[in-house]
User: Fold these one by one.
Assistant:
Number 1:
Amino acid sequence: MAAYLCMVAIFIIGSFSWVFPEAAASASHGAVTRHYNLNIRLQKVTRLCHTKSMLTVNGKFPGPRIVAREGDRVVVKVVNHSPNNVSIHWHGIRQLRSGWYDGPAYITQCPIQSGRSYVYNFTITGQRGTLLWHAHISWLRATIYGPIVILPKLNASYPFPKPHKEVPILFGEWWNADTEAVINQSLQTGAGPNVSDAYTINGLPGPLYNCSANETFKLNVKPGKTYLLRLINAALNDELFFRIANHTLTVVEADAVYVKPFQTDVLLIAPGQTTNVLLKTHPNATSASFLMAARPYFTGMGTFDNTTVAGVLQYGKPSMTSLNVSIGLPLPALPPINGTAFVANFSGQFRSLANSQFPANVPQTVDKRFFFTVGLGSSPCPKNQTCQGPNGTKFAASLNNISFALPKTALLQSYFFGKSNGIYTTDFPSTPLNPFNYTGTPPNNTMVANGTKVVVLPFNTTVELVVQDTSILGAESHPLHLHGYNFFVVGQGPGNFDPSKDPAKFNLVDPVERNTVGVPSGGWVAIRFRADNPGVWFMHCHFEVHMSWGLRMAWIVLDGTLPNQKLPPPPSDLPDC
Ligand code: C2O
């Protein structure tokens, strides 16, 4: 009898850990808390026959999955055993009144210093789908990232056929060199950083690189089944096209919000974006293999990593020869590198599911309007130095021509304790100070201004923000990410935004709701959100290089009058700078 009970216990724990790897759960009154430990360490990792010391989490690369259900509380103890300062961001998690746990270094917290720890503690409210977690300081997210899987509430189902299996697919970017050295050198010389050596799928570059045939992601499938692929772009600097040869995908969710399902052969996914797709396997294929591949979309003027990552979709038992076979398989055709027409058409297909169970609560009226330009520019070369950026300057990037300087202490603490003096100012411009023809001939002076400037919003303000790409130093798509919120993408278009014509075309019924949107290359995008989450919220380009150059700013959302509209005080273990 005892042995039988013991076997049942093992079975329950075993099956639980299959769905929730590395998690410990405790339940009280129906609410479930999931506990995770993330240990950050320096470790040797080899790819493309290059071994380097890099930061890993729990000895894994990519890092472990965080799995929870909608409504769960997630408690993650992050222990920094590495020599670097680290912080972790739960990208796309709304963090309702839990801004102390959002994670961007010097915005909501000082970094976790070497040998220290911090316990992140947040509840997942009104979200289900796929997100990601990643380091949020310098370029450490190059190796510190992993999936967040949010399952529907217990006994709730998907608004699409139940998949046979669910598979996270993370795109990443690999440098043979140390990525901190890469960005530090770029910031020193003013030149663009060295481009990556490979893209990866779940950490593996695939057979199209030198010395990488054994480092190929394989997805083993059965015929006639539906698989839910949880696609995550964790690459640093590249939007990626993705396709699986001979298979059509059905998009069902973006940034942890259900969308009206649509079919596509090719996907575009920007850094910071997540997309859930259904893959239906062919009913009669018992042993066959197909390549899946991803490579960049790029319209800028600089250099980029123009390589292709491939993986294998394998029907039936993996055979001994499948490794070599994968090299001979046909690559799926992808749009041209600068395929802006494809991108415009593809992003136009996303619509919120917007049904009674999952409504799209689009703000129908606007309290405050903003117009921000986004793009590259220059900053002066220091005296007695030669710089390798544009015309002997340094590359910079800005919103409304302000290149955001990170403060020495965290903005949220300065704000909460009323000590903003010398840390930040509240004069971030709501429109460009010197308007020009944004997508036409650039102005003579392309120098950016520097500052730590924020916008202050009263609680519950409805905001409309138009973000306009500039062609200064080349038109380029910018994946704009907002912390603490989802926003609705109510409009987008090519060229300069026309305030007299374009708003009439806005979709206020079922626009896609997400946390990261690609500002079209040489075009504009309009978003709306309701400022109902008090705190300090970072907004930035999710290209890490543009963020390093200053393409970032912050919104301060004030407390409301009711007790449940206020940000609680910080936890006692909040790191100091
Ligand atoms: Cu995924 Cu502020 O970033």
Number 2:
Amino acid sequence: MNSTHPVKSFLAAPLVAVDHLQMYFPIYRGIFQQKAGDIKAVDDVSFAIFQGTTLGLVGESGCGKSTTGQAILQLPHPTAGSVKFKGEELTTLTDHQMRPYRRSMQMIFQDPYASLNPRFTIGQIIGEPLDIHHWGSPADRRERVAELLSLVGLRQQTINRYPHEFSGGQRQRVGIARALATSPEFIIADEPISALDVSIQAQVINLLDELKQKLGLTYLFIAHDLAMVRYISDQVAVMYLGKIAEWGSRNEVYGHPVHPYTQALLSAISIPNPRTAMAKKRPVLQGEVPSPSHPPAGCRFHTRCPFAEEVCSRSIPDFTNVGTASNPHLVACHFAEKFAS
Ligand code: SF4
């Protein structure tokens, strides 16, 4: 493990600093349920998120990005590593000590159908976090719910209706209103548009972007859709099999992708201009993601990487900064400098 934070060592104090985070889930086998290994869902992940910015965390399904979001919220506590919010270490706090931080750190879930209690009215759903955190008087809470409805573009008359009476996009607006109820500073949006029709995905992204500007929010935006991540993110971290492969500003990562995995993911995005597409011949992703219970040694991408050499299967690559000190672009590849040139 590196002793210094690969991102913080370049930049000023972040709102959220994730340092060498690990989240392992034990595997038990046999009639005596003996421990047979671990699913290494998140393994030595570090990044930083700065106030008022959005970090897009992207990767294929099962790469550990949602588990990373849950580990930041201490749901559950990570296996190892550090998560700091405004400089405060969260991993050592008890559930009771975490309560004030839970007000400031909220989550928007992927599936607006499953995440809303069908027996509750919209008003009850949005007001639930206010009740849990004993926010103001009942009249204050009703006023706050009305304010949140208008903030996310829902009519006041919807307050007594039930989730099944709403479309997917409207339900996600309810989910966003609920996440905003306690005036959080930091929001983890976990695949917030992937369950929605394509026609309304852009509306929800625009709403998140507007709210960010209006309320000064900071986001961790988790997604597998690189096109949407590009639209909303300031920084982008690309994750592969529990580790960060590449991290940098949106313009750096999309404009000059260096890690072969990032290049392969970007090759799957349609490029409107065919001439540009021809000019940007990038590796195509082949094969399946290996199991996180038996990740490959060395660089985890070596079993699928078209440029893998002998060193890749025996040595874990450190981050190389192919950007500058003020605009870092970190790449976990033994040949980062060669690919960047
Ligand atoms: Fe490919 Fe080797 Fe770089 Fe990993 S370290 S991305 S296997 S070239």
